[in-house]
Amino acid sequence: MDLNLKATELRLGLPGSDEPADQLQSSSSHVKNNKRSCSEIDGSCQKQESGAPAQKAQVVGWPPVRSYRKNVMEQQKKPDSDGSGFVKVSMDGAPYLRKIDLKLYKNYFDLLKALENMFKCTIGVYSEREGYNGSEYAPTYEDKDGDWMLVGDVPWDMFITSCKRLRIMKGSEAKGLGCL
Amino acid sequence: MAYSFPEEVLEHVFSFLSSDKDRNAVSLVCKSWYEIERWCRRRIFVGNCYAVSPGEAAFRGFQPRAGGLGRLRVPVDRGDVGAYPLLEEIKLKRMVVTDECLELISKSFKNFKVLVLSSCEGFTTDGLASIAANCRHLRELDLRESEVEDLSGHWLSHFPDNCTSLVSLNMSCLGSEVSFSALERLVARSPNLRTLRLNRAVPLEKLANLIRRAPQLVELGTGAYSAEIRSDILLNLTEAFSACKQLKGLSGFWDVVPAYLPAMYSVCSGITSLNLSYATIQSFDLVKLVTQCRNLQRLWVLDYIEDSGLEALASSCKDLQELRVFPSDPFGAEPNVSLTEQGLVSVSEGCPKLQSVLYFCRQMSNAALISIAKNRPKMVRFRLCIIEPRAPDYLTLEPLDAGFGAIVENCKELRRLSLSGLLTDRVFKYIGTHAKKLEMLSIAFAGDSDLGLHHVLSGCESLRKLEIRDCPFGDKALLANAAKLETMRSLWMSSCSVSYGACKLLGQKMPTLNVEVIDERGPPDSRPDSCPVERLYVYRMVAGRRVDMPGFVWTMDDEDSGLRFS
What we know:
The complex is a heterodimer of chains A (180) and B (566).
Chain A: H1 67-77, E1 86-91, E2 98-101, H2 108-119, E3 137-142, E4 148-150, H3 156-162, E5 165-170, H4 172-175
Parallel strand pairs in A: 1-5
Antiparallel strand pairs in A: 1-2, 3-4, 3-5
Chain B: H1 7-14, H2 20-27, H3 31-39, E1 43-46, H4 78-81, E2 89-93, H5 99-108, E3 114-118, E4 121-124, H6 125-134, E5 140-142, E6 147-149, E7 168-170, H7 180-188, E8 195-197, H8 204-212, E9 219-221, H9 231-242, E10 249-251, E11 273-276, H10 283-290, E12 298-302, H11 306-316, E13 322-326, H12 341-350, E14 356-361, H13 366-375, E15 381-386, H14 401-410, E16 416-418, H15 425-434, E17 440-444, H16 450-459, E18 465-469, H17 475-480, H18 482-487, E19 490-494, H19 500-509, E20 513-518, E21 535-540, E22 553-556
Helix pairs in contact in B: 1-3, 5-6, 8-9, 10-11, 11-12, 12-13, 13-14, 14-15, 15-16
Subunit structure (chain A): Homodimers and heterodimers.
InterPro entries (chain A): AUX/IAA_dom, AUX_IAA, PB1-like
Organism (chain A): Rehmannia glutinosa
């Protein structure tokens, strides 16, 4: 490689150095990326990566997505917009809604018991074939796609990430498939 | 000067100067011009806080402080505050601003009208309350993408009942719910309101009420765009939108429920700017909306739109000038959507006015880039981010030199370029040869040697900002082109091969440049001179070196010690 820098009059060479400097190819994984010194390609003053599920080894600050954008996208993945596990619960006929924190419960049994307690009702036991047959109530939830689903069909972990709000149906609507 | 204009005459003349650049130049001519200028200065814009120092005449009284980002410091001393009595506008980008600052601004400048804080931080909603309460003639409050500590939504209620001057309100970055009735009343009594960008906490069910009170809106940012699917809400919203005959820009759209998108169809034909970049909806729904916006000039969208959606866009939106496609899952190992280079090629074929592109994708080819270059020779901004660093042309496995080479060769008006993918020194040779109007260049994981950097610095005549990360560029090219740096606004290099010794030399030889080494491993002189620095930031400054750096920033200056700590 011939730089031919002597041709440029503005050469400022380090004393005694005609060799190229050591090529230290770093992928910067050791460099923290703090929120300062504005460079858009470094991720535009990002905070440290936190909570982002790393699905592969990440190069810090790449791709250059702003931390503001990252935060917003993270928030939208969660069930409720305030970032906690709180979801609204409505009960047909009740004058006001309640809120519960889904993160407090470990399984459907605990959740349903809590709902029964809160609304003074009996929801009963789930079965795949019959749903909550026999009960006057059917617990339903709105998922990420905006569809209303019966509580209990999917594994618990999948449920808490996709549940946006709960509605306890009552009366004939609640009888569901059994009375079609 | 024996004869000169009386001050009042000069002041009158200067008051016609609206450009910030002209203002700054005028204030540097001589002391008396500086004094006269500041008396009638109405606006302050700080885009790069590092270039502002205590001495810099144009910004006297606004001292950037330590803490990484420049901190806005409005001096408490009344004398200094009196320095800009007519100040009406402050626009800041990426700076630290405190509540005390905001309070002082709100109380000191009687005519204060415009506050724009872009990607700033350091303040809370209490600071906003001061602005709301005290700025009697406030026209614009824009917090775009700032990180505000959200204590409560109560700040909005501080706008007094007789405040009717609001033209633009952007609170989209805030988390807390504001009092809806206060917001409604504020909107209702602001007949000049043109821009309203709500935050996510404003529910969709209530959006119609707000819009109804402001049918003159030109730009609207919705809150969360989701609600239980109810026909009364949909009807209400549809009617409200249909009354907005002047609406040109839409944004917001968090948590979109597609069933509510048709509420906007009546305004689509007038829409020129659409920001769907937070809308996590699928291609099908995006296309239905976008293809109705026949006059669309600017679209920001997530990659959920996919190639098929971009093709539909290209067929419907012939006025499109700017396209930004953001990644929905940038850190996923596998692609989650079917968005490739083909989408961008379609848009470049179908949209004759396309001049500004930001595109995140996972594969690219030279053929596609050449195609895009030939289709759109009037391209002005081209930013491509291929998610995997050093990804080659996926068809030929070659570097993407030829593709980007075609871009710079064909697009003679190109002012901004961001590169990605596998690139050798050759692409920089093309850039240096052809990109004569290029002002800003971003480079990452590219190049083979110093020659690459040398081509850019010696060839790009219009270059103002250069930012580089993870490239094998080192001392030789930097030092050989040191004089070039004086003609540029700034150079940023991180994780490259620039040695501490070279930084010192640069600092010594170039007194008009601020050469800053940012290194978290501790003082650079605790390591050998040949050791590369983590980050280097070089910028020209009118008024001397910064003294307010945080502990991990060192300035290379012209003293023998070569090093000055903050």
